[in-house]
Amino acid sequence: MKKIMVFFTALLVMLATFDNVSAAPLFKDVNDKYGSKAELDFLAERGIIFADPAQNFGVNEEITRLEASAMIIRALGLETVDRPDPNFTDVTPEDEGYDIIATITDEGIVNGNADGEFMPNNKLTRGQMAAILVKAFELKGTTEQTFKDVDSAYWASDSIKTLFANEITTGYPNNTYKPTAFITKANFGVFLARILNPEFKKQPVCYKSDGKKTAVVAVQVTNLWKSPNNNRVVDRPSISNPTDIQKWAKSMSVSQKLWLVGKTDTQALYGQEVVILKSSGNWHEIAVKDQYTPRNKAGYPGWVPKSHVTEITTDYTDCQLAIVDTNIATLYNEPKKANKFMDISYTTMLPVIKEEGDWLHVQTPANGVKYLRKQDAKVVKNFAAIPKPTQQDIVDSAKMFLGLPYIWSGISGFGFDCSGLIHSVYKNHGIMIPRDSFVQAVNGTPVARKSMQPGDLLFFAYNQGKGKVYHVGMYIGKGQMIHAPNSSRNVEIVSIDTHPYKANYAGSRRYLK
């Protein structure tokens, strides 16, 4: 109790001067742009760390047990004189930091191991940190929140829950805590600052663990094949992990593209939710949940390599959604255009963990948080909150892809087929329509040819419009449509009276309301 009274007396003084944040560099590696400078400023002004602009703080260095003990003692304002000898076998009174070790053990905050060792230079793990901070500052409380890598029987589980309940930590966006990972000096300082000053406390996060496994696509784009293992050498960039769909699309000749007809049916994008129907060898048969087809009530079915799918146990439905609305966007490993992670397609949707300056921090399926430029995406509360598009919005989005080569079954900014272009553009604007043209042709609202408006869909069928629908285009006004024609051509604008479309016209449908 005595150490807590000392701590709160010191805290009142700390908070009284909190607004006086230093504008000068604290250390060589902590300048004004450093993300946690405010927290480290706070600690320096209170004498918990000692600023030196000529030296590095070591923000990414792992903190030792001795270094962490020293910061806690200074934060609590504890006296280090006249402490009893801790009697550790690896510590003598002549050792540097002896007074720190004697004080922290006398207070019962940090203890040694069963062999009587304090291990002052050992690195501190995140689990150990939780236990030490909870004990040092007598933190209370618990939570129902569970991290998927912290078993209830783990020795520091209760302490980790207490840190979460006090908003000192929220763990990682993939719902892990990493209890056995070592903690850096900067991160330890941030945790300490959050305990000392509520203004630094971690804001509630938009994600939570529900224990439910959800299968999602783990590559930029995956092809859904009619059967497993039915691919060629030229297809290797599309079945590897990571995939390189751009390389795959550009490497194929027209005849190689035509071979895909009847071999692939659709594609799924990075992060898209799927259902695993069954497995065979290194392949899963999946169903893409939001691609409607009468073939399967679970979604559009097809075979993909197992490595293209991962399972997550974190619920991101309360997170904002970033929807890529440029042809191709790039994810980066850090918020600057120098460390590329992967290119992703138009209409890829990822949870937003944080917005910062010109960057979105987005959660990926299996690679943690990556960074997306704000200019490459629109951010909405959820899919249902996407603003209702105008006719011109729909047409302008389709026109973005003029000149893009046709890819059979394509549904990405790397290459579309006719119905894939339409499906993707409408989805980007919050309107879900069926995946295939012959299903699109019997949904929506029928529209007479003479009454068509921009954004309406035109369908074409064999046998002069009386047979099965095989093609779809989007009316853009003035007797013209935009469409992805076939494997030998690119997305283009043509007259609706162009041969053979005039003769094979089978009807129009409206999906804009």
From TrEMBL:
Q: Which segment of the chain is annotated as a signal peptide?
A: 1-23
Annotated ranges, domain NlpC/P60: 388-512
UniProt keyword Hydrolase, yes or no: yes
Q: Residue ranges of the SLH domain?
A: 23-83, 84-147, 148-206
InterPro entries reported for this sequence: NLP_P60_dom, Papain-like_cys_pep_sf, Peptidase_C40, SH3_YKFC_2nd, SLH_dom
Does the entry feature the keyword Phosphoprotein, yes or no? no
Q: Which UniProt keywords apply?
A: Hydrolase, Protease, Signal, Thiol protease
Q: What is this protein called?
A: Cell wall-associated NlpC family hydrolase
Organism from which the protein derives: Sporosarcina psychrophila
